[in-house]
Structures are given as structure tokens and as C-alpha cells.
Amino acid sequence: MKTKLAYIYSFLVAFISVNGYSQCDMQVNFEDYTTNGMSSFIEWNTIDDNTVVCSSSDWQPSFLVNNDTLLNVKITGEVYVNPIINDDDFIGFVFGYKSPNINTQSNDNHFYLFDWKKEGQYCPVAFGSFYANEGFSLVEAKGLIEEDPVSTYRHFWGHLNNENFNLLDYRYSSNMGWEYSTIYQFELIYTYKKVKISIDGELIFEMDGCFDPGLFGLYSFNQNAVVYQNISIEQYYQIHIDNEQDIYCEGESVGFHFIDPDCADLPPNTVSFQWNFGDDTEFSQDLNPQHTFAEPGDYNVELYLENLFGCIDTIRQGIHIEANPSFVQVPHDVECFVGDDIYFVVEASNALNYQWYYKDREMDSFVILQNDGYFSGVRSDTLRISDVRLPFDKMEFLCSINGDCLTNISSEAAEIIITDIPIRANLDVDSKSVCAQDSSYLILSLKEFYNIEKARILFEYDHENLQLLDFTSYNNHINYSYQEEDGRLEIHLERIGALPFGEAIIAAFEFQSIGSVNTIAEFNWVKDSTWFIDITGDTILDILSNTAISINQPITWDMNDSISLCYGESINIESDDFNQIIWSTGATGNETLVVDDGEYWVKFEDYNSCISADTFYFNSKPLPQEPLAIHILNDFYCANEDSIRFSIDGGLGAELEVHYNDIYKYFAEPSDEYRFPNQSESFEISAAYINDCGTSSIISQNVEVHPVVIPKVKIDFSNNELFSGETINFSAIPENEGEEPQYYWLMDQIIVQFGESSVFQTSDILSNHRLDVIMYSNAECLDVQDSAYASVFVNAIDQFQYYIPSLVIANGDGKNDEFKVDFINTDFEEFEIQIYDLLGKLVFETNDPEQGWEGENTSFNGKAEMFAYRIKFKHIGQHEKLITGKFILRK
Predict the structure, then answer these.
(1) Is the overall model pTM greater than 0.70, yes or no?
(2) What is the pLDDT confidence band of residue 23, given thresholds at 50, 70 and 90?
(3) Are 596 and 605 in contact (CB under 8 A)?
């Protein structure tokens, strides 16, 4: 822990509801804020109205607290630590703060504390060596804490619990500490039921409970230079609905509250409040009002809160009131005949479930109705009653509905009123659709015919497309007679015994389709000529039902008498008109694979179940067979050859297709040898057999074509400066020489070497010479000539050239003032020079070719005098040489 510094802080108070708006602002005067805590030495300095800084530190925690009791508020602000003080301890804030203050003991702590540590750290041994974790802590202090440093650090540093200090929650990690010079946005929501703390929009802690009003303050423990700024306080009330549920119904009482009396009291800074329920009813001043909304709809409930300064805030809460279910249309009485199908219908709003009930003349109350053979839709808005029976007369029905709101609202009742019992004569066919030449039965049935004494029945049918084949009667208590003529069928009935109630089949008529077109053949009653008489001789009301039958010609497919396909190809019927196709091969569907030659049949069933068939003869055509191999008759061809030759083994087909470089040639007859024009470079030749069934697999063979080449040669040697007699290598650099070229070397047009070697070595270059090489190539695909020629001229420097002065003037001017021999070639193996006067006396001798003589060791009198020299030397690799002569010395 290090020394700490100070900075800034701002405090702006504005009361804004969470789900409303605020008109009440209160400026904070930091002169009214006090420094509290367990130490009186810590300083908090205000920089301006918006900034405050803790500018000193001590081993005790310190708080800068306001003088207003707060609850149901949202407090936001910024905090950062100036890096000029290198420290890493605790920052944060307190809320619900009651003590310590100037009126209580400094160690009597009652508050909630949120603190934030930069780094994990042990405190000094003198303070207990407690470890503080990096990150966030939420603490409740609720009593006396001893004032000695060890007790202070045990709780505020190490966050160890006892009965007066409780660590409620924490978030510790190695990456959760605060950083220098970083502005953090903090938010505290403190209500009577909840605490929420966030940093930079990230929720750190959330806690539920019952919380009391208290002061708000800023916190520092062993950390100075912590700056708090731009702090604002907003009123944070919310309207809550008692016993919250998904649906609220019209006519039901709904409770509201913004303070839970079991958890908290009304804050002292709120002097009045009233409720506006948004439905034009009177305002309420109850703390927890109960209100009934008479109409369904969406309402904005508003709460008006007045503070000590007479400023009013508005809080809003929306609520949807669901409508009760109700009937828009009720069922009505229905008049009908026995045997009718009838419906009772209701229309309802906000209904979720329906249930129909019934009551007959023998019942005192309605009974729930079940689906059965007569009743259906008993749990829907439409009740169907099928085949009304005579006992249903005067039967009553009603519908009960329920919804999200209310249950079992019943409609008015409606009843069935039966007006007559008619005879129902029905014509029907056992098959509504038949194919050409197929037959079907027309069935005559009567319903409610127990009162019949006699009857005459007459109906017409399409005799151009239908033919009557047979008649069958089914009732032994009736005498039958019938007559058919030109599509009119007349039937006479006479009862000879008791007839059954209900419905019975009277007779069946077999008809055969005889038409050649698709048509609808109708059976229609001749109503004016059809009547039923009862036992009293009265005519019975009748209801006559017509019918019809669809006559369909089978769909056919014209197969060729003979079908030729390639081996492996399938016969395909390209049509969607058939429901099923059956082949004599055993296959079904539009396609079949036929392997063997012979006769076959196919059957077609269309979507009317009409069947047709056809036969055909199948002939299989062979597939082309792949060639076995392509043989190129030469290993390679030169690009200047006119054609290539090849042969092809195996394969079978109508034609042989040979192609290369997008050129195709076709041969109807096989040949022992084929010729193709040559190409300038290697290429691939391919072959396949073709016929009407396609092309066989392709085989390929590469043809190697070598380019035409011209031999070339040049001479290369590396010595830029050649001395006479020096050994030198000349190299022939060939092109297109083949595998075994021959070289002829000539010097001054005289052959000096020939053979396979491309290198010529010699030490016979003494002066100027001409060197030639002729290269004979054995490369493949040579052009017109098989040889190449190259020539060079070589100049050799005489390595024995030298300069011996004939006059030496030893006057010290640097010009000709010493006797020294200059050699072109200075690579000596041996060297010696001797100088004699005219009397034969040796006056100078040296083995260093660089050492000169200026007349030393003589009796030279200054006049011109002649001396003799003797020079013996041997260059490296050369013979020894001796030079003698005379020169004149003058000073």
C-alpha cells in the first residue's frame, strides 16, 4: 500500500421513474456531505460541483455520504483512479447507510458496501496478513467492529465474516481488477425489494430481499487519488400488480402497489400519491388499491408521486383487460322432415371451448351431448344431427362456452320441429366409374316406406351408353313388376305383408357399358310419373334422389410391332396417364429391360382402373467393342518425316474412329496398317469403334515426335591474358551433338587432336595462332548437315620480354636514377643480377628483382662511367636464361 492522491466528483439528482417520466430535479450541494468512517484523518476534496476525490489514505475505511435518506432509486456515475499514485487497493460505494456518523460510534457500522480491488494482495503482518482478492465484493455491515487494525483488516480487507460483518456475494478473478486511467460507468438500483449493481453495462450483483432506506456514500480504503464524477440519482419506482397472472378479465378486481407494506414504508420524501387507472373512473389515494375494469381493452395505469418540494413525478404501467366470452348468434329452431340432416350454429366472441347439451320431452334438465351416429360436432360451434328420427321432434339443444375469462355461459335453447315423414327413394350405383364393356349395379332403396300400400316408380337412363342386363328384387313382402323401353324403366310395387321401418334395398339392376366415348351416364327420376300410396289411399310425400355413373374408355399406348434396341437399353413408356404398367418380363412401371430376342406383352391400367394391352417383338442390337491396343510401328518419328504408321488390334463395330489433335478419321474396313500425317511435336492418338448403339471405350497411345535439330559448336577458354608457352585448355561447347559426338581440333589448319574429347589442352601457343574445331553429331532427327564448325584466334604474350636501361642518371629526381630491370612476367622461380665496373670488380649483387642500384660501393668520380651487368633468371615452369650487357652511370 502506497501513498495516494486526490481528484474530482459530480453529483446531480433527478427523479425519473423507470416506466414513467420525471419533472423533479434537485441539485446536490457537497457542502452538506460529510466524511464518515473509522478514521478522522482521511480527506475528501471537491473539485467542482460534479467532481470529488479522496486525497489521502489511512488504515481505516472512509465514506463520503449525503444527508438524504434514499430508497427506490437508480444511482449512476463514473469512477477512475489517477495513475500518479501507484496503489492498488479498494474503491466503491455504500448504500442503505445509517452509521457511522457524527452521532454514533465510529466503529458502529450499518450499511451495504460494494467494493472493488485492483489486485490480489496480503496486508502487512502487523495488520494480520489477511489476503484481499482481486475483484468485486458485496458486504452487509450491521454492528460494532473493533477499532484495532487487525479487526479492521480482517473484515474490510480479508472480508472474513462474523455476526456483524457478512460477505453477501463476490466475483473474484485474476482479470477483474480495476485499471488506472480508465473511466468506469457504474449503476446502482436500490429498491425496497432488490439491489442491482452493474459496471459498464455488465451486471455484477443482483440480490432480492427487503431493504430499508438509507444514505448513499462513496468509499475508499487505503486508496487515494480515486475520482468520482457525473453522479446522478433517479427515482426508481415501479407499479406492481398483485398476484401477477397472464390474463386479467373484465369485471374482476385487480390490485396494484408500488410499496410492499410488509417490506418497506413509504419514503419520507414522498408526501402524497394518487392513482389514475386510465378508464375515466375516480382517482384513488389508497396505498394498495383494488380496481375493477368494466370494459375490456388496454389501459395505462398512472401513479402521481409528490415530493417535499411539491414536484410531481408520473409512473406508468400498462395492463390488458381480456373480454369475457359472449354469444354473437344463438341457435334457432329448425323445421325438418324425418331423415333430414340439420345443423344448429352459434357464433361467439372470446370463446375457447364449446359444449352442446340436449333435453327431450321426457327430461327435466339438459344433459351433455356426446358424438354418436346421429350427433357430431358436439364440442364445436356447429352441431350436426344426421338422419333426424321421429323421437327427435321437440328435442331442445343449447351450447355452453368458456374462454380465458369466465366459464360455462349458456346460449338460449332451440328445438327440432318435424313437419312430415316423406318416402325417400334413392338411386345409387355400386361403382361410380366403370370402364368400357364393364358392368355395374343400380341399387333402388326406400327409406321410411313402412306406410306404403302400392307405388309406381319411373326413371330414365342413357340407353345409348348403357344396356340393362338383369333385375333382382330383395323384399318378399312386395310384389314387383317392371317394364323397360328405350331408356325408361317403369316399376310397380304392391305390399303383400308388413314392411320394416327404416331403410331397405328394394331392387338391383345390372347395367353394362356399351358406349365408345368417355361420358357421364345419368339415372333420373321421372317425378310426375312416380308416386307412393298409403293404406288410406293418400299420396305420400316423396323425396327422389338421382345418380350417375362415369363411363371411361381405357387409355391405350400404341407399341410398335417390332422394337430394336441396343443391348442394355430399356423400353420406356413416356406417359403419365397410367396408374400401373405390367410387363411380361415381370417388371412394373414405365420402363423394362429386355435382354433376349423374342415376343413380349405389356398391360396398361389407367387411373380409372381401365385395362388395355399390346404385344411386340424385341430385337437386341450389339454394342461396339473396345479395341485392344494401338501399335506405333516406330519408337519415334522425326518432325520432318511425312507420316506415321500404326496398327490396331481387336475391337468390333460398324466403323473405326481414329482421332488426334481434334482431327477425326473413320474406317469402315479394318486394315493391317494405317498412315497419318506427321505432327511437329509428340501427340496422342486415340481409337474407338462406333455403331448405332454408340461408341466403345476409347484407347489411346502416345506418338513420340522429335524435333529436327541443327548441330552447333563454339570454343571457350578462360585465360584472358595468355603468355607464350603457357598451358591452356580449350573447350568445345556443343548443341545437338547426340550421344557420341566426334571432335577434330586444328591449329593453324593442321589437325592436332581428334576423337570424343571436347577439350583440347596445349602449351604450344607462343604468339598468334588460329584454332579450329569441327564437331560431328550423331543426334537423332538431324537437319541436312551433321557437323558444326567454330574458330578462334589466340594471341600469346612473350613472357621473356623485359626492359634494361642503357643510361642511369643518379641525381635523386626520381627519373632514371637507378639501374633496375622491368620484366613483363614477374613470376620467378630463380633470379640473380650482378654489376661490374670496367676493371671487373663486382659492385652490386641481388636476388630481388624489385631492388635497383644507384651507384653505391664504387669510386665513381661523377663523370659518366660505363658498367657491365650479368642477369640470370628462370620463370616458373620455364628454362633458365642469361642476359649480359653494359650501361652508363652519370650523376
Answers:
(1) no
(2) low
(3) no
